[in-house]
């Protein structure tokens, strides 16, 4: 009975819209929709949404998609800065071959001028120094020095050249050629790579040996002795030039074996080694200073290869009795080697400038810096010879290469009879004419480049005299000059500096080259200038770049 009563009560209770027995919601007030109207509105929206969905599915078709892809548009001007930058990069890569070859052309003639100096003007300067030394008692000792510092350095260069030339006669070129030819191709490829690395390492140490000898021999005698003596330095210099000449001879012999191989496989492998250089250089971080060092290294390497090719041609022409037909057999291989070297340098520099966001105008700065070295070395009170300046800047040391070339020429060409000696004299006069003409053209072009770079005022900035007896290690503000000479705030110079002979009370007018400051990081007030100028935006913010040696292997990032 209880269940029936409860069931009847439930059945008599009013039901809601959802069928529940809960009480109905309150009636809608005036201006508000009733629950029934809400339900009808909800159903209308749901039906309308369903119709739209069906219509959208019906609109999807392949033709409609293809039509949208074909007619879809976009506007590049919305990202104008990005596309302008990409276009400038393309233009920079297009300008790199021209600017790079202009730098290479100028640098190769600088190396040629320093190389011809050893054969032409150096013997004449040595003869004049010997004449002064012999006739000195006739004129009396007007100065405290028997010879001027430049004459002492010329005498040392001449003696080293003569001694190393006679020492090279004990090296048998033919035995070395057959010994290298008997090796396998892979072994020769490894040997050639090792020789390239050894050449860079021995060049960096060799120039320091020569500079130490020059300063030890010309250092004022009133200073306290802080060296081991001139003779030990001279012996080290002779050993260095001799060993470096033998190293270059092995390189030339390996290249000669590659030229004379029947299948040319060794020559192909050696040429492919240049393209391996791209892999080791392109994908690394480079700054303007690193790129400058690499450019100098490439100039020196290209000029050295030209001399090696000349030696190879001389040796081959001698073996074929100077038959001109054999030269045209060698000519395609020579052109192939030169072309591969040029192509590798262009590709390498193009991608280095692209990846490191360096403009092509930087090569004009490099050329101006080399020109500044040449002009500053021609000053009246210059502190170094021009050939030594090129050696320090590019790592090109002409003495070992000159010793080897003289040895090859004297063994390949036999001079017999009066007419032959007349031809030798005429050839020597032609070399002197070529050297003078080359020097005049280079000096004129260098002055033009220095003026275009607005660096001429740096040539006339005098440096204050150094304090006698004051050690350079206690000074502050030490920095590197162009030729790798450490100069403190009082102007004292390191062992590579060679002062001109002046009176005791006359102020020193030594010219300090500032081309490294032109290419390195400015400090102090120069930082503000570099931030304002868009041309100097690629300069590094690290001061230790001023301490970079000119023989630094540039494939690695300098931190």
Automatic annotation (TrEMBL):
Its main location: membrane. GO terms for biological process: cartilage development; ossification; positive regulation of cilium assembly. GO terms for cellular component: ciliary basal body; endoplasmic reticulum membrane. Residues 1-50, 461-540 are annotated as: Disordered. It is found in: Membrane. Keywords: Chondrogenesis, Membrane, Osteogenesis, Transmembrane, Transmembrane helix. The keyword Membrane applies. It comes from the Eukaryota. It is a multi-pass membrane protein. The chain crosses the membrane at residues 103-135, 155-171, 230-250, 396-413, 419-444. Pfam families: DUF747 (PF05346). This is TAPT1 protein. It comes from Rhabdornis inornatus.
């Amino acid at each position: 009975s209880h269940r029936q009563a409860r069931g009847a009560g439930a059945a008599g209770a009013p039901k809601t819209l959802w069928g529940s027995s809960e009480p109905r919601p309150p009636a809608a007030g005036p201006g508000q929709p009733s629950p029934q109207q809400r339900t009808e509105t909800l159903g209308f929206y749901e039906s309308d949404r369903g119709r739209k969905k069906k219509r959208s599915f019906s609109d999807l078709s392949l033709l409609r998609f293809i039509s949208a892809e074909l007619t879809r548009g976009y506007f590049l001007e919305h990202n104008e800065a990005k596309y302008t930058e990409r276009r400038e990069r393309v233009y920079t890569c297009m300008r790199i071959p021209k600017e790079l070859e202009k730098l290479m052309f100028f640098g190769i003639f600088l190396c040629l001028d320093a190389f011809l100096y050893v054969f032409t003007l150096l013997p004449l300067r040595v003869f004049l120094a010997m004449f002064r030394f012999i006739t000195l008692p006739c004129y009396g000792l007007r100065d405290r020095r028997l010879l001027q510092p430049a004459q002492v350095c010329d005498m040392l260069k001449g003696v080293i050249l003569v001694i190393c030339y006679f020492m090279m006669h004990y090296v048998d070129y033919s035995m070395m050629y057959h010994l290298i030819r008997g090796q396998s191709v892979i072994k020769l490829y490894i040997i050639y790579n090792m020789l390239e690395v050894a050449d860079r390492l021995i060049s960096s140490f060799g120039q320091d040996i020569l500079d130490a000898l020059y300063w030890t021999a010309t250092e004022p005698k009133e200073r306290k002795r802080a060296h081991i003596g001139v003779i030990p330095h001279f012996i080290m210099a002779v050993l260095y030039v001799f060993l470096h000449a033998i190293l270059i001879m092995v390189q030339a012999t390996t290249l000669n074996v590659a030229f004379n191989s029947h299948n040319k496989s060794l020559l192909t492998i050696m040429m492919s080694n240049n393209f391996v250089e791209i892999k080791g250089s392109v994908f690394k971080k480079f700054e303007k200073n690193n790129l400058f060092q690499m450019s100098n290294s490439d100039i020196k390497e290209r000029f050295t290869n030209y001399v090696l090719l000349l030696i190879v041609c001389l040796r081959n022409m001698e073996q074929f009795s100077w038959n001109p037909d054999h030269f045209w057999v060698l000519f395609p291989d020579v052109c192939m080697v030169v072309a591969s070297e040029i192509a590798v340098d262009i590709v390498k520099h193009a991608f280095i400038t692209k990846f490191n966001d360096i403009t092509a105008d930087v090569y004009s700065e490099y050329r101006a810096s080399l020109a500044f070295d040449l002009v500053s070395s021609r000053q009246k009170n210059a502190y170094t010879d021009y050939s030594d300046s090129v050696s320090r800047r590019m790592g090109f040391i002409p003495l070992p290469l000159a010793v080897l070339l003289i040895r090859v020429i004297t063994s390949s060409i036999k001079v017999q009879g009066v007419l032959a000696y007349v031809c030798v004299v005429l050839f020597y006069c032609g070399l002197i004419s070529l050297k003078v003409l080359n020097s005049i053209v280079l000096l004129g072009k260098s002055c033009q480049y220095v003026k275009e770079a607005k660096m001429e005022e740096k040539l006339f900035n005098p440096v204050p005299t150094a304090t006698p007896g004051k050690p350079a290690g206690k000074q502050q503000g030490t920095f590197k000059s162009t030729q790798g000479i450490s100069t403190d705030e009082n102007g004292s110079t390191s062992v590579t500096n060679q002062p001109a002979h002046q009176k005791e009370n006359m102020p020193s007018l030594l010219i300090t080259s500032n081309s490294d400051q032109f290419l390195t990081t400015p400090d102090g007030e120069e930082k503000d200038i570099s931030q304002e100028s868009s041309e100097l935006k690629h300069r590094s913010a690290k001061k230790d770049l001023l301490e970079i040696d000119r023989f630094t292997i540039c494939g690695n990032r300098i931190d």
